[in-house]
Amino acid sequence: MSDKTRLLEQEFTVEVCHRLLPDWKDLDIHITQLSGGITNKLYRIQSEKGDYTVRIYGDKTDLFINRDSEAHSIQEMAKVGVASNMIKYMPELGVTIVEFIGDSIVLTNAHFLNPSLYPKIVAPIRKIHLSGVRLKQIFNPLVEIMKMSAILKRLNVEYEEFDIAGTIDRLIKLSSIINIPESEYTPCHNDLLADNFILINDDARDRYDAPMYIIDWEYAGMAPSYYDIADMFQEILVPREAEKGIVSEYCEGDNFDRTLFFIDLFKPFPDIYWFLWSLIQLNISKIEFDYYSYGKTKYDNALENLKFIKKEYGVAV
């Protein structure tokens, strides 16, 4: 058994903190396990020397996450001002430590129904997409789906209730219709669920450079910007008018119809990606979570969106 697995499975204690941060050895340390992670274990650790988040990588997550790319993304996006600063990267132990963003709340899906928050939500997304940063990983949605499908096949499990091969064939056709070359990809987060948005409290704004930060950069890479927003919409599942309000804020009055069109065409891709991800996690993860139901919802949503784009735009695949 590796050190990485032992660290994932053992109790997270002060002694573990000493191992990760030897200069904290003689300090009073406060440890809090954080909720929200369905792939990894997360802890907040505090001492007089700092306030950090420790991420312990989930079992076998290296099947689909490149930790070097993730670390690079965190470092680059911290410079851009949308991510917290990296403190320590220890892939040999399966650990990344970043600054904890306090004085804040984690967004919920309900926050995306509040138009007064749209400028704060959209600002970091636009910063990412327009940053000009070149992230190490290329996240081609169709290619990543094919990779997930291949991983699932290697696990030798069957889910005959889902037409995985047929649905991927439909996405291949849809990808050829979208036809965005990788040369036009921008930096993207690729996992913009509500839990990954951290809103600074009003009374603490003077202590932070921005009102909103984004965490969890495991899937970040160069991708179509429309995919990034489509992924967000398929996570938060807000009514159409809220989607239009967010897209309008993102576009700042330019190319609204074109932007919404491509976001809509990309919606089935994140759903199938996370559907396959869920079936993989169901077979490898040691974290208790109803991966099957989560994945089935994603699959059903993808099929509904394929119907929607046929009805809305006449795009049939």
- The rounded Rg comes to 20 Å
Low-confidence stretches: none
Give the rounded overall mean pLDDT.
95
Count of individual beta strands: 10
Class inferred from helices and paired strands:
alpha+beta
Strand content: 5-15%
Distance between the termini: 46 Å
Number of helices: 11
The outline comes out as globular
Order of adjacent strands in the largest pleated sheet: 1-2-3-5-4
| Helix proportion | 40-55%
Largest pleated sheet: 5 strands, antiparallel
Element pattern in H and E: HHEEEHEEEHHHEEEEHHHHH
Describe the overall structure.
This protein is an alpha+beta fold. The protein has a domain at about 5-60 and about 85-100. It is about 45% helix and about 15% strand. It has eleven helices and ten strands. A five-stranded antiparallel beta sheet has the order 1-2-3-5-4, with helices on both faces. Strands 6-8-9 form a three-stranded antiparallel beta sheet, with helices on one face. The protein has a two-stranded antiparallel ribbon with strand order 7-10. A hairpin with a 6-residue loop joins strand 1 (about 30-35) and strand 2. Helix 5 (about 140-155) packs antiparallel against helix 6 (about 165-180).
